[in-house]
Amino acid sequence: MEYEDYGEALGLAGTVLRANAMSAGLDAKVPTCPGWTVKDLVIHQGMVHRWAVDVLDGRGMGDGKAHHKAGRKAKDLLDWFDEGWAELLHVLGSVPADLDVPFFLRTGDSPRVGWARRQAHETAIHAVDAMAARLGRPPQPTETWLKPPVAVDGLDELLRGFIPRKRIGQLRSPQPTVVVVEAADSDAAWTLNVSGEPTITEIGAADSPDVLLRGPAVALYLALWNRGDALVEDPTGFLDKWRQDVVISWA
Length: 251
Known about the structure:
Nonspecific Lipid-transfer Protein, Chain A, Four Helix Bundle (Hemerythrin (Met), subunit A), 4-stranded mixed β-sheet, alpha+beta, 8 helices, globular, 49% helix
């Protein structure tokens, strides 16, 4: 995806999140985030948007607690969400290409691109959560607004950025296991070399893998972010282990 595409994806995801949050109501439970209400979801996402603005503006990577507290006290939570979302879009549209700020994923992206990419996918997945709150269940891939190019990009960020990290994405196996993730509606594929050490992810499909996860890109995107596994081929039942091992949360 091009840099401008991330702004468009972030704008669309924010629109979906807000509309579904309003429709579901702030007290509605979020099936895809056990223990959360829509209020918790909106506060979290609004906090993350403001946290990203802090980093992009050169104020460093704080813990976001002050923003979280502000969300709890907001008189109109959705207006508060709008303010942070709009500010993030503005900042991403104005920062220079050579922006020099910290970024925590080793995907090869510049900080400017990395933050735009991360916020686009952060907001997209939580917009899916807002849809789940409205529906009372995880949405089917075909019920979402997501398109294959965005899903492929998000899969790449997840598999090459999060999963190899030591502290996040604790995907391990006592027996070396080769896992291929293949998007059936594109030419995108990744190979995960899972062992007792941090997982190593490579672009492309290995021959004769131990595990093959195959499906439409949007279905894989949702499944590997633990938002439902409809339409994903998983003949060895590997997704059960994935859901147990891969739990990415705010730290």
